[in-house]
Amino acid sequence: MSDILKLTAADLSEKLRSGELSSVEATQAHLDRIAAVDGDVHAFLHVSDHAVEVAADIDRRRAAGEELGELAGVPLAIKDVLVTTDMPSTSGSKILEGYMSPYDATVVARSRAAGLVPLGKTNMDEFAMGSSTEHSAYGPTHNPWDLDRIPGGSGGGSAAAVAAFEAPLALGSDTGGSIRQPAHVTGTVGMKPTYGGVSRYGAIALASSLDQVGPVSRTVLDSALLHDVIGGHDPHDATSLTDEWPSFAAAAREGATGDVLKGLKVGVIRELDDSGFQAGVSESFRASLAAMEAAGAEIVEVSAPHFEYGVAAYYLILPAEASSNLAKFDSVRFGMRVNVPGGTVEDVMAATRDAGFGDEVKRRVILGTYALSAGYYDAYYGSAQKVRTLIQRDFDEAFAQVDVIATPSAPTTAFRLGEKLDDPIQMYLNDVTTIPVNLAGVPGISIPSGLAAEDGLPVGIQFVAPAREDARLYRVGAALEALLVDSWGGPLLDRAPILGGAR
Hints:
- There is one protein chain.
- The chain is of the alpha/beta class.
- It has a single domain (3-271, 278-303, 397-495), classed as Amidase signature (AS) enzymes.
- Helix content is 39%, strand content 12%.
- The chain contains 17 helices and eleven strands.
- It has helices at residues 3-6, 9-18, 23-41, 51-63, 106-113, 156-163, 180-186, 220-230, 248-255, 279-294, 310-325, 345-356, 359-371, 378-399, 424-429, 435-440, 470-488, and strands at residues 44-47, 75-79, 117-122, 169-174, 189-192, 212-217, 265-269, 298-302, 404-408, 444-451, 458-464.
- It has an eleven-stranded mixed beta sheet, with helices on both faces.
- β10 and β11 form a beta hairpin.
- α9 (248-255) runs parallel beside α17 and α11 crosses α14 (378-399).
- The longest helix is centred in the C-terminal third of the chain and has 22 residues, at 378-399.
- The protein is globular, with a radius of gyration of 21 Å.
- 59% of the residues are buried.
């Protein structure tokens, strides 16, 4: 494998700025890598025809002395939930097969403006509904650590692309863990920002009160650099915060010194008992906490009594919002249409949705429509929103005692493809540690914490901070990352199996 591919986005950026490498060289190396290994991984649904052209333009502008952003010339993978003008935007669904958007999502537009080079669109569970990328209408993505296992979901494509060295950076979206859980099972870093901290304009909506766009990378600093590019207020998004955000990259660089751990209070949730988790996940989590404690952090037990109801509340709120958001896929305005000779508009719509939506989407749309129906709204959707408020209060009370909360990012390592498809409840429970973060709108980050002893597969630790304290996560995440990488003698992904016959 080319040495270029092993560079972090931050290191690649330095070599681009110094002239040691050109963006064309970096982009071509990643395109060659995609060609070599993506037949096995299937991280990408579409590879850009224009990437080298875009890279050449960045090189030209740099040579002309133009002031460019820190990440200018660095390749980027884009989850297919984000619309793009120059590549199809399908959200992993047949109903949008071949759809070309007339505009870019805000995060895509900001990435282009910062000089990042879009490589292609990554695979995902259809309309982001899933925890394994097995619900993509275009076939599953495979985990680079073990091609027979899931890469997580819904953003398994973005995580796998980064883990397989097909891209140094990727954009993802996280509705209940779709950035952080794939990070956990692929040995990558995934950040879900504070709700409203990153624009959702141009992200094909699943559940509008839960969705958040964020970065996927191999290091905490790389995620912070991308977050700096995509974050900030967007007038096109009614839920966008107007806050002035600090430099997340500066926070990550400060954290990497390790000093931030001294006196840091790290909360461990009493009710989120990891004794039911896979042993290797719990052991890795406990070892990370011990490393932080040895560096001066204080581990504090906190209570969050309503977290146990989080999954149940989430799987009422999400389907309800999804059934509303997906009503626009009606065979009339855009997307596929199934003709019904002599049929009414309703007949055409029903036939189109039947042919165009997969089983998981249908399951959640039906559930959501039921939960919102007359006589059931208060019993189901209304009650779930009350639970959401209680979870937000749990976080408020916990953060009055601690600086961050730590949990395993998911209960198990990557399970085998097909293993849980017939048991959606088990699949849903896989998001037990990530879902409360989305319900409360607070930021969460997953960083690699090691390999599980029993299967040698990656494990992640999740940190959660109060709303608007994203920078705190980058400080803490970078501090632990520095400790762990030092103890391992190099990045965790160095231990990943060889793909395509070469490192």
